[in-house]
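S1.2 Input.
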Amino acid sequence: MFGGSIADAVDRRRLLLVTQFSLAACSVGLALNSSSGQAALWPLYALSALAAGVASIDSPTRSAVLANLVGRPMFVSANAFGSF
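S1.3 Output.
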């Protein structure tokens, strides 16, 4: 619910850049934690929770951008293609 409000309030392109960078940083953090000699449990929980929170903003923003990227006649096809 809050992700859609945030997507409507700010520039969607910048928001997508920030969310994608944040998700990539979480992935790198998880990879570094797992590749270290002694992997800790708390980064797994913290980074997974952070990634889920960021994804809750990324998903509605991505859906809203789709309407701007394709024209009205192609929106149904683009939406179906994006669901895979």
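S1.4 Remarks. The chain is about 80% helix and 0% strand.
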